[in-house]
Write a structure and sequence with these properties.
By secondary structure, the chain is an alpha/beta fold. The protein is built from six helices and seven strands. Helix content is 37%, strand content 17%. It has a seven-stranded mixed sheet with strand order 3-2-1-4-5-7-6, sandwiched between helices. The model has no long low-confidence stretch (mean pLDDT 95).
Length: 228
C-alpha cells in the first residue's frame, strides 16, 4: 500500500533555519544540493529564488498542492497542542512561544506550496524516499537530511539507517544529517554504529556543533565526507 495523505504530518522549515541546522556557508549554498526528506520546507523555493541549484525529494510530493494545503490546515493545531504539552523540551529563545513557532512553520509551508507546482514542472521536486533514490552517482555536491534519520530511531531500524546513509553517500559527495537526537531528546542509539560503519567504509564521520538549537540538546549535525 502506498503512502496515505492522512499519514502525513507536514511541518516546514525555512532557508534561515536550514542555514543554521546544516551550517551552510555562502560557498556551500553555491553547490549542487539535495534536500532529502525535505517535506513542505521553503528551502528549495528560497534557494531557487536566489539562483542556486537545489533539488528535493520526499514521498509527500506525490500529492497535489491543494491536498497538501488541506493536510496542513488539518494538522497544524494538533501539532501545536503537542508542542505545548512538551514545551519544556524546547529552547524558547529565538522562537519565543508555540504561537510564533506555528506562524513560522505556516509561512515556510505557504512558500513551499506556492512554489510546488512550478518546482514539479522544473524537476526540482521528486517523489522518492530512502533507501532508494532516483539519482546518479555523485550527482550532488551536498545532501542534507533533516528531522528524519536519527529523529525516528524508534521506528526506523539500524539497517534502514545504514542503507539510507550509504545511498546518500552514493548520490552526494558530502552528507549532513541534523539532528542526531531522537524525538524524545535522547542521542540516537544508531549514531555510534553509523559513525563506525562509515569510517570503515572510508569516510570521515564527525559531529559538528551548529548555531541552531530548538530541541534541547539538539545542536549537532553529523557530517560525512570521503577521506580520499
Amino acid at each position: 500500500m502506498g503512502l496515505q495523505l492522512k499519514e502525513i504530518v507536514p511541518w516546514g522549515r525555512s532557508l534561515a533555519e536550514y542555514i543554521q541546522m546544516f551550517a551552510l556557508s555562502p560557498a556551500d549554498r553555491q553547490r549542487r544540493i539535495l534536500d532529502c526528506g525535505g517535506g513542505p520546507a521553503s528551502f528549495n523555493a528560497e534557494m531557487t529564488a536566489q539562483g542556486h541549484s537545489i533539488q528535493s525529494c520526499d514521498p509527500l510530493y506525490q500529492f497535489s498542492a491543494e491536498q497538501i494545503t488541506q493536510r496542513v490546515t488539518e494538522t497544524r493545531s494538533l501539532i501545536l497542542e503537542k508542542v505545548r504539552e512538551y514545551q519544556q523540551n524546547y529552547v524558547w529563545t529565538v522562537i519565543s512561544d508555540p504561537e510564533t513557532l506555528g506562524d513560522m512553520r505556516l509561512t515556510a509551508m505557504r512558500q513551499f506550496i506556492d512554489d510546488f507546482p512550478q518546482g514539479l514542472a522544473d524537476g526540482r521536486y521528486h517523489v522518492a524516499q530512502l533507501p532508494s533514490l532516483p539519482y546518479a552517482n555523485q550527482q550532488f555536491d551536498l545532501a542534507v537530511c533533516g528531522h528524519l534519520l536519527f529523529s525516528y530511531s524508534d521506528n526506523l531500524s539500524l539497517d534502514l539507517h545504514q542503507r539510507s546513509i550509504q545511498e546518500l553517500c552514493r548520490v552526494a559527495r558530502e552528507v549532513r544529517i541534523f539532528p542526531v537526537l531522537t524525538l524524545n531528546g535522547d542521542r540516537s542509539p544508531w549514531l555510534a554504529p553509523i559513525i563506525s560503519e562509515r569510517q570503515k567504509a572510508g569516510y570521515s564521520a564527525d559531529l559538528v556543533t551548529v548555531a541552531y538549537e530548538f530541541q534541547k540538546g539538539g545542536n549537532q549535525m553529523l557530517r560525512i565526507v570521503p577521506i580520499a
